[in-house]
Amino acid sequence: MLKPKVLPEILAQCNSGGVKTSMLFNRDGSLLATVGEDATAEKTNAASVSAIMANIWASFAKAGDAHVVLLDCENGRAGVTVVAGTLLLCLYGDASTPFGMLKLKAETLAKYLDAPLSQILGSGGGKDNK
Fold this sequence. Notes:
Blueprint: H1 6-12, E1 19-26, E2 31-36, H2 39-63, E3 68-73, E4 76-83, E5 87-93, H3 99-121
């Protein structure tokens, strides 16, 4: 079972190699957890970013079987993937962060969190990626 105090520590492990912020949110964009360099500023911005990313994910998921969505933004790069079938994980890095690094970290963390979050949510674990 995943303990709530451990989740930020797990998310923080991805914040290296250019990745600045890790966020976990549901498909309607409601922020569940965020870890970043500047915690106060990140939490303020993360709520808006999670809502936007959830909307972008929904658009890509409608078009097909979205696995990882990679975005080149004005101030950095982002990677979004599904966790436990119902949650979204977003890693945000600076503009020099390689897309391959974002994808690898997002997929690895999503796989690690899938089983414990599926137990909590009672979902089928990552089977429904749409």
